[in-house]
Amino acid sequence: MIIFFKSLLFLSLSVLTYCDNPFSTQPIFVSTQLDEKHNYRLPNNTRPLHYNIHLTTNIEQADFDFYGSVEITLEAVENTKNLTIHYRQLTINEVKLIDVETKKEIKFNEPHYDEITEHFVIPVESELVNGTQYLLSIEYNGTLRDDLAGFHKSSYTDDDGNVVRQAGTHFEPHNARHAFPCYDEPSIRTTFDIVITHSNSYHAVCNMPVKSIEAKENGMVATHFERTPKVQTYLIAFVVSDFSSVSFEKTDGILYNLYAKPSAIRDGQGDYGLFTGEKILTNQEKYFQTKFSLPQMSQIAMPNFGAGAMENWGIVIYMQDLLLYDESSENLQEKHDVGHIIGHEFAR
């Protein structure tokens, strides 16, 4: 988010130039033309009602491929012969479309993908009917990105010199489509059920608390999370890691967690961020006279995170240097900076 705003400021300044006449003091504003050849917005002839997402990763083995399935319950808001959603850098293996009420499969012609707009268009043989609900199921696979966007990989070196890997997300502004096919526009909110299958030596963290953990074959487990309230795709987040954590639950029922590499938690570097976060959120609730609406607030210190920090709902992700603080250092500037960034992210 911090880097995003710096880039936005640079872009704003870059369009301001001056005349060739060196004596002129009149600025010229250079307009940036929109791409009129392509419509990047979804047609909005259907809308999502709910997502069921299941992702599988073996990141602990340095396997950067991931596998996914998504079921989108959707509604047609007008009669249409095209169903359009987003995806990016995914391989689509299977697509099914079913009428929710009749359970009949909807036939469609070969879907097509626009690499520029990242629209995945499913042309149905008969019209989708206004007001009717459908279930779109997609099986797919992808690769964790190395540019710290979308569903990406991260790593740190432990005390023994071993490289330990993690998988995390950064979906703002439109990178959720790299983790799962979706309606990836910020004006669209809906609910999510998320399941992540991973090694039993790792754990998964998401916007909502863990509902259950299911044992699978070959040392894998499936972590099921509670259903989210209605939320935009860019605020969904999850991390799969070997991180340790510190946590406590307030009397009002909110669970506060802070996750970081085990050595940082062992050395107490997460304590200040955890308890400062609780104080900040409590004071923000009083100031805005609004109760925080989720049952948990997790903070995660990632070894690599391109945005500096990101205010995902209920799971704020930071570059680790912006969240961890060593009390023995007595560096008041660093202490101030940690509190400042937590306050900024929580307020958003």
UniProtKB/TrEMBL annotation:
Alphabetical UniProt keywords: Glycoprotein, GPI-anchor, Hydrolase, Lipoprotein, Membrane, Metal-binding, Metalloprotease, Protease, Signal, Signal-anchor, Transmembrane, Transmembrane helix, Zinc
Primary location: membrane
Glycoprotein among keywords: yes
Domain Aminopeptidase N-like N-terminal, chain residue ranges per copy: 48-235
Topology in the lipid bilayer: Lipid-anchor; GPI-anchor; Single-pass type II membrane protein
Presence of keyword Cytoplasm: no
Pfam hit, one: Peptidase_M1
Signal peptide coordinates: 1-19
Subcellular location: Cell membrane; Membrane
Domain of life assignment: Eukaryota
Cross-referenced SUPFAM superfamilies: Leukotriene A4 hydrolase N-terminal domain (SSF63737), Metalloproteases ('zincins'), catalytic domain (SSF55486)
Cofactor(s) it depends on: Zn(2+)
A GO biological process held by the record: proteolysis
Cofactor annotation remark: Binds 1 zinc ion per subunit.
GO molecular function, one term: peptide binding
PANTHER family: AMINOPEPTIDASE, PROTEASE M1 ZINC METALLOPROTEASE
Recorded family membership: Belongs to the peptidase M1 family.
Protein name: CSON008207 protein
Natural source organism: Culicoides sonorensis
Chain's gene name: CSON008207
